[in-house]
Amino acid sequence: MSPSMLKTVPAFLFAAAAAFSQQTSVPTALPSQPFVIRNTWFIGGQGSWNALRLDAQAKLLFIAHEKNVQVVDVSDGAVAGTIGGFQDARDIALDPAGANGYVSDGGRASVTVFDRDSFATLAQIPTEPSPSSLVLEPQTGMLFVLGSVPAGTGAAPPPDHGRSPTTPPAATSSITVIDPQTRSAIGAILLSERLGAAQADGAGAIYAVSPGGTGLLRFDAQSAINELRQQQPSPAKTSKASTPAFPTVDWTNPISDPAVEGQLRAFPLHGRCPGPAGIALDSTDQRIFVACSNMTLVVLNSATGDTVTTLQVGPGAHDVGWDAEHGYIFVANGGGDGNITVIHRNVTDTYNVNQTLPTRQRARTMAVDADSGLVYLVTDYLGAQTGGHGGLNGLKVVPVEGSFQVLQIGQ
Q1: Integer Cα distance of 303 and 80 in angstroms
Q2: Confidence of residue 23 (pLDDT cuts 50, 70, 90)
Q3: Residue with the larger pLDDT of the pair 169 and 75
Q4: What angle do CA 231, 234, 235 make, to 5 degrees?
Q5: Residues 6+ positions from 77 with CB-CB distance below 8 Å
Q6: Beta strands in 279-350 (DSSP E)
Q7: I need a surface site. Which of 55, 111, 300, 410 has the fewest CB within 10 A?
Q8: Is the pLDDT at 171 greater than 90, yes or no?
Q9: DSSP three-state, residue 283
Q10: Distance between CA 205 and CA 250 in Å, rounded?
């Protein structure tokens, strides 16, 4: 069955293949206008997936899907194009000017620049090993590329949204800083904590979760750039012999280095938020929303790191989305039964869990369109396949071919 045929097939026809792996959650008391799954678009493709990025103006959803980035027109669910040639596409960043996009390739230790009109590849920029999260910092105009290398290995596994997440120990982490104008790296910052999802606050700071370390880090973008520009290339400091030499700054021991301590700040989350995964920022009101592995969303003051409140979410919480126009926080809980926790924040800075919407298992990657109030997730169906020996001993779980799908959620 082709992916185009799958777009018109009701989802219940997959139930026989996926029954043992798909469970549903019981919604909470619903608001007056509850969120529902408005559309399911089957777009096909193979392999695990990582980040989503939405171009709301162009109505295009970019999906990092292993060796490709799929581009979906969210006005009708059609595949508008594909950007190929990756070993392991992880994250996507879109230039606010609308001309270019960027994709981190963890397998190649590079960032690919592509044209957002034609989807053609324009350049490949070498980075430190295992690049993952991308942040285009608006004040400096620089692209910050976060990557981590686990102890005893040469590359870090991505935050694989198609399989159960893992938290390997990290030996080193890096933040490669790229100048989009010259399409080259100006240098890299070395850290000792594994870095995950990250966002810029629009005022010059970047926040990144540190799942195996302190929990949350904040660093000043301009300070990092200034220090890198004062350095000379140091091949011995690079994480991998094949990585091109560019200047590096060592921030692995901020406690013993007062200069680093002033530029890099840790917000410890121990106890409150083990295994932080997703992060979203409300820069206007200085709030950080962090999803944790203990079924908790922690709301922090971004200036002080103080806890504002904690809220219960679902098991397997991962991505967090913030809709500033409508005051909603969304937490994609794809690692458990598969649902989204919908939280509303009112003007008095109080928070209410309005709804738990059943979605699909493994639907933990999310993009939010604050203009329309729509939310997008991706996942696939799992089915049973025999290993050729017959009987239950040969049974294994595999993705159903052509079942990779986009879920459009709205009120």
Answers
A1: 41
A2: very low
A3: 75
A4: 155
A5: 7, 39, 41, 43, 406, 408
A6: 279-282, 287-292, 296-301, 307-312, 317-323, 328-333, 339-345
A7: 410
A8: no
A9: coil
A10: 19
